[in-house]
Amino acid sequence: PDGQIVYIKNDPIKSGGGGKKVELNKQQKNYNKAVEESKNGNKGAGEAVVNRKGIEYPKIDVEGYGEVELPKGPYTPNNTKILRPNFTTKVKKGFKEWWIAQGRIWPEGEVNIHHIKPLSKGGDNSFENLVPLIQPEEHQPFTNWWRSYP
Fold first, then answer.
1. Nearest to 24 by CA among 1, 48, 44, 4
2. Total number of domains in the chain
3. Which domain holds residue 141?
4. How far apart (Å, rounded) are the C-alpha atoms in residues 75 and 48?
């Protein structure tokens, strides 16, 4: 809530003890809220989730798919070392074929296949966890956002 107050205990030797009243700014409040939501694996209905920089989760609408939703937690373990080597050209080609077979349009331009739940945050290479995004305008906002979450 706005105006949340925290007390920081001062070093009694240096300051003579006591506490200092500090109000959290909006970015700190949003970050604290995002951390709690990530622990719970969800977000409140209609509430934006922000990363440590106070940036809201990107809202990108993919034709034939819809909005790329924030995946549910937990956001562990880091599967990058185990699963990234398996994300081969063959898998990407299979994903493209699967995507089109679902009746969806493959985007024009430089396409980057995005892990909705990143490998580094507990995601996997399942086709349901992938979405084709145009680089850089659609893909880069997600990459940048996840670097600072939570």
1. 4
2. 1
3. 5-147
4. 18
